[in-house]
Design a protein that fits this description.
353 residues, Trefoil (Acidic Fibroblast Growth Factor, subunit A), 13-stranded antiparallel sheet, alpha+beta, 10 helices
Length: 353
């Protein structure tokens, strides 16, 4: 039988609770429950000889200097505690369990003090700082604290971070924005084709999103979409080129260096996109997975006229293959201009980026 002894490395309340299950046995043997419990205390912890019951024993253990050291040790552990998301190899469930245990051991029961320790454990970036402040200001219990913390973590796992892998689904037709290396238009400048492809994400529909900071905010972030399977090529437009079926602005996959190599003027190649919420014009916040967005770009060939990314049921053929057209236009926005951005793989930033 492995009977727990007390050596100052466990909270007295927890130790008393652990040995209570032996009460039925010690009550009639070994000199009684109280005397047996006292005998299990490490001899380096000096106790009064006048302890009359378990409550007095527990209080005596708390008054000993070993308990002060124990509490302070757990406070220092709280101060150095760092939250690591699952995307970086962490475990939120174990973190919360450890956090609550340290608070218990250190006898930190004040909710504001608990908030402070939890906040300091988070990665220091704008998202965690702003979300924690907004959600925690009205929290008044431990259960609320953990619930709101979990909500922050769930939302963080869906954020679109710089250099993450994404796919863009056309809402109206359900097809994904795609390109294929070395498959080119037969019209216009014969650049690499962009089309609405399969109904599920496939290698041709994967893009690396780039915007030069960890998170993309609505209304003030410019993004680039680099095609994963192509050699350093981005989604963009060469303003004077027309789409093969509807003669709107042609959308292609290319790079500035490639345009120069084939003898075109690189100033007319545009690959910087803006995004906005398709339903709420002044929507604030961070871009996240499953947001429904409009994508726009300035056409430098036409004095930076703003045009929007669109697809529709209209098709065109190259050889024996048929493709669903993708264009840019400056007409009234509608359902054909809505795209759902889906997070395929979140880029892992360092902890305090």
């Amino acid at each position: 039988m492995d009977i727990p002894k007390y050596n100052g490395n466990i909270h007295p309340d927890e130790w008393i609770h652990d040995i209570q299950k032996y009460n039925y046995m010690w009550g009639k043997n070994y000199g009684g429950f109280l005397n047996t419990a006292i005998s299990l205390v490490d001899p380096t912890i000096k106790l009064s000889t006048e302890i009359r019951d378990i409550e007095e024993l527990c209080n005596a253990l708390k008054e000993n200097i070993s308990f002060t050291v124990f509490k302070n040790t757990n406070k220092r552990k709280l101060q150095s505690l760092k939250y690591i998301p699952e995307s970086r190899g962490g475990d939120t469930s174990k973190f919360i369990s450890n956090f609550l245990k340290l608070c218990y051991n250190a006898e930190i029961n004040d909710i504001e003090e608990q908030k402070n320790y939890l906040y300091k454990s988070l990665p220091m970036n704008n998202y965690f700082s702003s979300e924690f402040y907004k959600k925690m200001k009205d929290v008044n219990s431990v259960n609320e604290l953990i619930k709101e913390f979990e909500d922050i973590i769930v939302k963080e796992s869906n954020l679109i971070k710089d250099e993450s892998i994404v796919a863009l689904k056309h809402i109206a037709t359900g097809k994904y924005l795609s390109s294929a290396e070395n498959l080119c238009y037969t019209t216009g400048n014969k650049f690499q084709l962009v089309f609405a492809g399969s109904l599920v994400p496939d290698p041709n529909s994967l893009w690396k999103i780039k915007f030069g900071k960890e998170l993309a905010t609505y209304n003030n972030t410019s993004i680039k979409l680099q095609h994963i399977k192509s050699n350093n090529k981005f989604l963009g437009i060469y303003g004077c080129c027309k789409s093969p079926s509807t003669y709107h602005t042609e959308v292609s996959c290319n790079s500035t260096s490639n345009i120069i190599n084939v003898g075109y003027i690189s100033n007319y190649w545009d690959e910087n996109w803006k995004f906005n919420n398709s339903k709420l014009e002044n929507h604030q916040g961070y871009l996240k997975s499953n947001d429904i967005i409009n994508l726009s770009i300035e056409n430098s060939f036409y004095n930076n006229k703003v045009e929007f990314l669109r697809s529709h049921d209209i098709q065109f053929t190259i050889g024996n293959d048929t493709f669903q057209e993708i264009v840019c236009h400056n007409e009234r926005l509608g359902g054909n201009d809505e795209w759902c951005i889906e997070l395929i793989k979140q880029h892992i930033w360092t902890i305090d980026d």
